[in-house]
Amino acid sequence: MYKAPRGTSDILPQEQGYWSYITQKAIDIACLYGYQRLDTPTFENAGLFVRSIGEETDIVEKEMYSFQDRSKDRLTLRPEGTAPVCRAYIEHGMHSLPQPVRLYYFADIFRYERPQAGRYRQHHQFGVEALGDSDPALDAEVIDMAWQLYANLGLHNLSLYLNSIGCHSCRPGYLESLTANYSKRQDSLCPDCRRRLRLNPLRLLDCKKPSCIPLTEKAPKSIDYLCQECADNLESLQELLKLLNLPYLIEHRLVRGLDYYTRTVFEIAPEGELVAQATIGAGGRYDNLIEQLGGKPTPAVGFATGIERIVLNLKKQKVAVPAISPPFVFLAYLGPKAKYEAIKLSALLRKSGFSVTLTYGDRSLKAQLKQANTAGIRHALIIGEDEVNNRTIVLRNMDKGEQETIQLDKAVEKLRQAIGGSTRH
Ligand code: HAM
């Protein structure tokens, strides 16, 4: 028996209500803020991700699904959505458009992680990227979008965590101090952190191992090492967040698992749950990434949210989502002539905008109506040999159990009356 690969799952019909609810709210938010949709391929050249995410990150070291295709090209299933957007921005000369270029996307994301609740090997993201402007007002816009998305979805009790990890000119000083601080305590570090100390000290702050947590709490804070420009930037951003009534907490340990960030980084998580697999959405500024990928220097900022994590939280918080409507009418028939007539009528009804379903084969009328009931369909049209001969059909209201015989050629009109004049159902 085959099963879905570990860390992946099927999104079953009964779950789709959540997915279409979230997708629609995300598109609404993107439109409200003037963002345009961009779709990029599911796989890219492996080098794109190694360059952008960083060689010393967990994603590049352990989690990428990379393979060589038949032309011996080295490809990777996208482990995140920002680098592909930057690649497309450069490839399509978007720097010549009015800046910032505001884009949004839905993407399936692949990371070879240890699966657990809220952490999968294939997950889905909604993300936005605003490219071509360094004004902290753009950071505030992106954070506001994330916050308003969750509010519109009906989620509450979320916290916004904020940090600044500086830029190329002030970060080296901070890293020096961080490294000096951790070097004194090397013996108490986990093996991963001993490596991080040499290769990527910022990631030390991200360690969730009980032996390392006390060290992260006492570690020097990046915001104490910011250059004037980065400090002013953070200051302006905080003012704007206050202006927009967005409550935030400065979290010194927030450094993110991707190397491309500069200055602003943020995460949104259920209150009191700043652990990796609880974060619902996250992002930040990445002012050097486009240049690093071969484009012109282009500051940018963005965020992405995991759709599975939103579903998890909607369920946890018991947010009711609109159910996906069943077909409007069920066509039941008895006998071969009636089947022929039913199929003809189903085509006519669909052309008129009514959603219709029917079963095939020789099922009893009782079985057919039971099926309509189980599917929650409110109207049934029933046709047998007598009705075919008389050019009539029975219209049954499944809720009330009432039915009437109508002229076959009046079926569309009668259904229209049943829904009060509109045709799309
Ligand atoms: P990220 O924090 O790696 O950021 O992922 C964004 C969101 O995707 C997370 O907050 C979480 O909701 C969800 N997520 C991540 N990994 C998993 C997983 N294994 N299973 C389920 N959900 C997951 C990025 O990917 C950046 N590209 C975000 C960004 C956009 N930064 C700037 N622009």
Description:
By secondary structure, the chain is of the alpha+beta class. It has two domains: 13-170 and 226-316, BirA Bifunctional Protein, domain 2; 329-419, 3-Layer(aba) Sandwich (Rossmann fold). Helix content is 37%, strand content 20%. It is built from 15 helices and 16 strands. The strands form three sheets. The protein has an eight-stranded mixed β-sheet with strand order 1-5-6-11-10-9-7-8, sandwiched between helices. It has a five-stranded mixed β-sheet with strand order 13-12-14-15-16, sandwiched between helices. Strands 2-4-3 form a three-stranded antiparallel β-sheet. Helix 12 links the parallel strand 12 (329-333) and strand 13 (356-357). Helix 1 runs antiparallel to helix 5 and helix 5 (136-153) packs parallel to helix 9. The two termini are 39 Å apart. The structure holds histidyl-adenosine monophosphate (HAM).
What secondary-structure arrangement, pairings included, does this model have?
Elements: H1 16-32, E1 36-37, E2 43-45, H2 46-53, H3 58-63, E3 66-68, E4 74-77, H4 82-91, E5 101-110, E6 122-131, H5 136-153, E7 158-164, H6 171-183, H7 191-199, H8 213-218, H9 228-243, E8 249-250, E9 262-270, E10 281-285, H10 289-292, E11 300-306, H11 307-316, E12 329-333, H12 336-351, E13 356-357, H13 365-374, E14 379-383, H14 385-390, E15 392-397, E16 402-407, H15 411-418
Parallel strand pairs: 1-5, 7-8, 12-13, 12-14
Antiparallel strand pairs: 2-4, 3-4, 5-6, 6-11, 7-9, 9-10, 10-11, 14-15, 15-16
The protein binds histidyl-adenosine monophosphate.
